[in-house]
Structure prediction request, 342 residues.
Amino acid sequence: MRIDLHTHILPKAWPDLRERYGYPGWVSLEHTGPCCARMSIDGKGFRDVESNCWDPLRRIEECDSAGGGGVTMQVLSTVPVMFSYWAKAQHAADLAVLLNDHIAGVVRDHPARFAGLGTLPMQDADLACRELHRCVRDLGLPGVQIGTHVGGRNLDDPSLRPVFEEAQRLGAAVFVHPWDMLAKDRMPKYWLPWLVGMPTETCLAICSVLFSGMLDAMPRLRLAFAHGGGSFPGTLGRIEHGYEARPDLCAVDCSCSPRSYLADAVRGTPARFWVDSLTHDPGALADLVRLFDARRVCLGSDYPFPLGEAKPGAMLEAMTTLTPEQKRAIRATSTLEFLGRA
Prediction:
């Protein structure tokens, strides 16, 4: 069994959002051929996509193919540019309903092949909590996908705390995915916002959570971070050293070091939060297993986009440094536990 935690989906069409809400900045989808379309923002192309971005039957066909790695189930979430945290909260909430109803419908039609994560209007905690409740209680989704920050507010911002508290209360999983990139204006060439800025965004989000003491205040909250935790695993030594060297700056809101939230080999306990396996490097994936334990690493491909893993799980299966038990955990059981379905 293979469960891919990290996949993105869109509806085949949606209304003209600029006309619907009365101002620019919204994503549109123009079908340019039988199996292809272009995502645009105010007439400027953002990304070209194919029908596997909206057609569940094509997704299933690709999952079942040899190239698809034999993926048993995909966990669906929207494309992060659709978060729309910049917009008026009531409009982002309206769009979230449209996107979440679509994902729930795909899951309802193919329950053995798909699970779903909703999206929330995070710029307004009350509206976000209301939609989170609807996602879990009414739509039957196991959780939500959110961004690494909300309009410049990091995940430790007090205004966001009620959303995480509600997620803990409902038992909802929270998958954190970057939607914006640090220093993107400084490094527009060479695709560096995606290659460097995006992993840094995820590291910043993880550190915001750990240094805030959020995981101690909410011990049942289940969080996972995309792209193998971004640059966090590679900079953990520096982060931990900073905590020890300057507690007056780092330990102002927490009493535990960053490393204390990771796996403890002596006690046999896994990390306090999850990451996906999308590292594109066997050594990096082995390091994730060492730092987090395989029980906190979920198979993730970023399907169907070019920075994803073209054959989900192929690198994992080829690795000789992991035990069969560790591979089984990464393939499926860690994701089932994250989703609350273990």
Q: What stands out?
A: The first helix runs from residue 17 to 21. The mean pLDDT is 96. The first strand starts at residue 3 and ends at 8.
